[in-house]
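Form 7-S
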Amino acid sequence: MIVPIPAALNQNSFDTRWYTLRRPAAPDAPNVWRKWLLDSGSLTRHLMQASNGDFRVEVVRQLWHRPTRSEALALGISPRQMALIREVQLIGLGQPWVFARTIIPATTLTGKQRQLNTLGNRSLGTVLFRDPTMRRGPLQISKLKLSNNETVWARRSVFRLANKPLLVAEVFLPALQQVNYRLK
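Output:
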């Protein structure tokens, strides 16, 4: 039985060990995933190009909840602090290619960044990469275990908008392996 990705990944999936990439050839990551894991550009833009525009964002859930310990540590906040958690699927050519989880502390959702609370089915990447104050921290990678014991590759990084943090984790789903696309 195939378990849908949102059900297969739960909050505990993201409370794992993440590794900062210090060199381009991460020995643990298979070649098929390296280009996606190591690219620091806009994933949304790459997926839109790879799908020839047949791309959409589907919100799985958005709620106020506590981040995992690993997520709180990455953001420099208390694990007891509530944050806006947004989970989406990035769908290309009708198939889920990426599952993304964003953690936004309440203190980030002030001023211009309040718009992050009302993205709906718009891509977070379109907001992040158009903001001149955006700074991206180092990429970290991990293998996440699904509830059916399959493993998938993921990356995450802390973004800062006007020096206010948010954490974005992107899980690369098996269907993305079939995408013949060269990152520029």
